[in-house]
From TrEMBL:
Name recorded for this polypeptide: Ubiquitin carboxyl-terminal hydrolase
Organismal lineage: Eukaryota, Metazoa, Chordata, Craniata, Vertebrata
A GO molecular function held by the record: zinc ion binding
Enzyme nomenclature, EC number: 3.4.19.12
Quaternary structure (record): Interacts with UFD1. Interacts (via UBA domains) with SIAH2 (when ubiquitinated). Interacts with BAG6; the interaction is direct and may mediate UBL4A deubiquitination. Interacts (via UBA 2 domain) with AMFR; the interaction is direct. Interacts with UBL4A; may be indirect via BAG6. Interacts with NEDD4.
Amino acid sequence: MGSGCPRPYHSSAQLGKRLISDFVSYSHDSEGGLYVCMNTFLGFGREHIERHYRKTGQCVYLHLKRHVIEKVPGASGGALPKRRNAKLFLDLETNGDLNSDDFEYEDEAKLVIFPDHYEISLPNIEELPALVTIACDALLSAKSPYRKQDPDSWEEELQASKHAKTLVQLDNGVRIPPSGWKCSKCDLRENLWLNLTDGSVLCGKWFFDGSGGNGHAVEHYKETGYPLAVKLGTITPDGADVYSFDEEEPVLDPHIAKHLAHFGIDMLQMQVTENGLRDNDIKPRVSEWEVIQEAGVKLKPMYGPGYTGMKNLGNSCYLNAVMQAIFSIPEFQRAYVGNLPRIFDYSPLDPTQDFNTQMAKLGHGLLSGHYSKPPMKSELIEQVMKEEHKPQHNGISPRMFKAFISKGHPEFSSNRQQDAQEFFLHLINLVERNPIGSENPSDVFRFLVEERTQCCQSRKVRYTERVDYIMQLPVAMEAATNKDELIAYELKRREAEAARRPLPELVRAKIPFSACLQAFSEPNNVEDFWSSALQAKSAGVKTSRFASFPEYLVVQIKKFTFGLDWIPKKLDVSIDMPDFLDISHLRARGLQPGEEELPDIAPPIIIPDDPKALDIDEPSVMQLAEMGFPLEACRKAVYYTGNLGAEVAFNWIIAHMEEPDFAEPLVIPAFGEVSSSGAAVFGAVGLDNQPPEEMVAIIISMGFQRNLAIQALKATNNNLERALEWIFSHPELEEESEPALDMMNMENNANANILAETGSEGPRIKDGSGRYELFGFISHMGTSTMSGHYVCHLKKEGRWVIYNDLRVCASERPPKDLGYIYFYHRIPS
């Protein structure tokens, strides 16, 4: 064929299989092939193609279909290699049963004209117009948009290193202890790599998670040529993170168990129970990775509706765990899966960019049972004999969902590990902004918090209410019931580190749940409290109570904190979380007899002449960061609200958390310049004659409506002090103002326009009893939210089930004491 002719369609169709796995807009499979609209280039499964044709009138589709056939015995060619090129075939998600030398693929491409289903086989260069041929060829050769969006997100499927099979290991007697490692060339104890040739432990620099180091591991390679290293702290029975200096990329080491055993590391010790050893011959397993994943116990796989796993796309386990918990709740099931036909019918022309469509698609994938079927080898053999194959689906891939829900978010759109609690709140925010009916499913989590603030000097009080979705419980370390054991363990650990001996068996702090609940109910000091009674700063305390109890109570254990070096750290503790919880005693009571309220006077606003001269109140920053917000966002919030305290800065965060640069580092502009958030710094005029957003946020934080704040600032030429005076001199305007800003979020959202009713007045709550029963929890393994792994345990049909990405099994030992986020449902009165 001449160089000017298009490529043959058979080879193009093989490339086109990349579309099959992640272009399907309404479902997670392409059984019956994939239909790609030649106008929008959106992909649809067979069961949804008629809906798209009826809705849009588009009649030309490219139909891609794959046939799996059995090889002729002894055949040496003609089969598609398992992975001819990893960069080309990463999107292909074929069934594991077919990833062998016994089968080959044959791909078919056709043009289909609706409504008559007229088919034109490809290639058909002679009969089709040149533009149509070019369009088909370009479509089949296109790379997945989700790979283009974040190319680093799809490097999870690694190649085996060329050095793995022939790796030479020196017999130098080196033995690696299970912990207490340190770089042999510096004092670093983080981001350490074990060279698999000579056993050197050295620090990295720019591998995987981007953590810091002095690059001694790569320097050692340049000096010695020893090619493979494994990251210490990532070794589990399932594998480890291995890097090849020679190949300059993360790799697989099929012989990793043997290579680690050379240095005394037994990565397979958790499987000895299946090899015939008695349980009492095995040391008790105490590490988080072992206990939370229930390693060493043979778990029975679960199949059917509600027992569908989710593929880890590369540090997406936080998303998988949260979505499994969300779609175990009946209100979310009804809202999205129960309304699925209607949502799909009213979805916009591009359903990949519609939140409700993607939620319905994901929910259906998890709950339908279509993607969680037990293997049936007899059926597989019969299908192969007929030269047909019905894929045996095992879990779903949430690529399209993750791409949409994280779009524009600086953290969730990356391939880094994230905080499951932050993602839960991000998801709830999106649910709130995309209403699907008269009732919002996120209302089941919503509750009102009554905050009582008291001036310690005047003894006067102020009561305020706010909406929340999570109960955050502090870890009462001082209440540990095994303090003597902890002290003895710490002494042994330090001695072992000094002598470079294996560390003693871990002793975990045991914290009573009652102590954490008590710590939650106790008063907390208010930083930089300004007393309106004294007209000055004073000591103040705040207590929180439930003004209403939610239908579903989400409890977060505040395990993550910051060290003196500002590095996030995790408290490895065991808390005896109850199966049944009664928090009725935390019901708010309001203003009590004998209490006197603080005067309703706003603190004076101090606007610096030079914004750069403004110091940032670090205690307020840390207080916000401990709530789970990104550190840089907290610094910006405190700066842009003039160091008025964590409470005012918290309101700024709520108003700005959806902005693209929310978590970007603080850049202090010169006086009068426009800040990165699109508003001017104090005193400068905003864009399009709009008041600076920071000034608006300050006025809103004082309890005034947003539209009233904007009106006051415009009336006073953006003078903050005069704007406050203007508001107080126009009380009638405050009474007339109505919160109608939620309607702005409904623009360009077809589902919201068609399905949603007008918003109700006031906060939506489902108050009731304060008695709850545990039905799920999300656990985290690792040292901080920036690394590690999440799994989810849910109680279904009377028994606990573990959801560990694609693996869904009956739980034998649910680690309820090691959870991070707990889900309780209200017990009917």
